[in-house]
Design goal:
Layout (H helix, E strand, L loop, with lengths): L3 H23 L12 H21 L5 H10 L3 H12 L4 H30 L8 H18 L2 H6 L2 H19 L4 H9 L7 H4 L5 H25 L10 H11 L2
Keywords: Coiled coil, Membrane, Transmembrane, Transmembrane helix
Length: about 260
């Protein structure tokens, strides 16, 4: 039998490991709990969970050290299991509220900082200075690499192909505007796809310059959503598209 201090120390260490595992499980498909903006909050959540778990073990004095260890491993599971039940039921049980109310604000803030990290990552892979052609090439570049690395089920769930098509349809119309084709061709192109056949675009038929800007802006947002899907699915090593590098590679392959 270990003395009380050693037993509680072991419980605390087990709770730290358990809390880390269950926090990572909780954050799957949400983001990185240990990203640049979120790591300190994640560590705080883990430590506070371990402290609370050790306090619970301290309250059950007189029981075996094995039960203390069991508490250290099992109690932090509320970080994940409670979250999964909430997602399935759409509500929080009273027991869950009692168990995690003191961590609720920290966990909510952690989710926010993970979203901030995800947004920064996505924005870093889109350049506002790209031409319509370069934006289109970037979408194809990212789509191809995402398609290769995602499972069939992930691609279906994240609507990877549909997002690429939505980008292309918008940029097709933007290209027609840049080429100064007739008004009738632009209107026909807008009406040729459910993506562009919307009041949002039709209201700018008397201002093609504004319409062009809105189409490009929406295409960039759709590309950001595609990258968001990649980030949440763990493809965070996806390199940034660089038109200059691609042009150099093509020049070398076609001397």
């Amino acid at each position: 039998m270990m003395d009380g201090a050693a037993g509680l120390g072991l419980t605390f260490l087990l709770a730290l490991v358990s809390a880390t595992v269950f926090l990572v499980l909780r954050c799957q498909r949400l983001g990185r709990p240990f990203g640049p903006s979120s790591r300190w909050l994640a560590l705080l959540v883990i430590v506070l969970t371990a402290v609370a778990t050790t306090a619970v073990a301290l309250l059950v004095t007189g029981v075996s050290d094995k039960l203390h260890a069991l508490v250290g491993v099992v109690a932090p599971s509320g970080l994940w299991l409670g979250y999964m039940r909430q997602r399935q039921d759409g509500r929080r049980s009273l027991a869950q509220e009692i168990l995690t109310f003191w961590l609720a604000s920290l966990l909510e803030r952690l989710h926010q900082t993970m979203a901030e990290d995800r947004e920064i990552w996505c924005e870093g892979r889109i350049d506002d200075s790209w031409t319509v052609h370069e934006l289109s090439m970037a979408a194809e570049h990212y789509h191809e690499r995402i398609r290769q690395r995602m499972s069939v089920e992930e691609r279906r769930k994240e609507r990877v192909q549909a997002r690429l098509q939505a980008i292309e349809r918008r940029l097709d119309v933007a290209t027609l505007i840049e080429d100064s084709v007739g008004r009738s061709k632009v209107i026909a192109a807008l009406g040729g796809s459910a993506v562009t056949n919307k009041v949002r675009y039709q209201r700018y038929l008397n201002d093609f310059g504004r319409l062009h800007g809105v189409l490009v802006h929406d295409a960039e947002r759709e590309l950001s959503r595609l990258l968001d899907s990649a980030y949440r699915c763990g493809l965070r090593s996806l390199p940034r598209y660089d038109p200059a590098v691609l042009d150099l590679t093509r020049a070398r392959s076609h001397p």
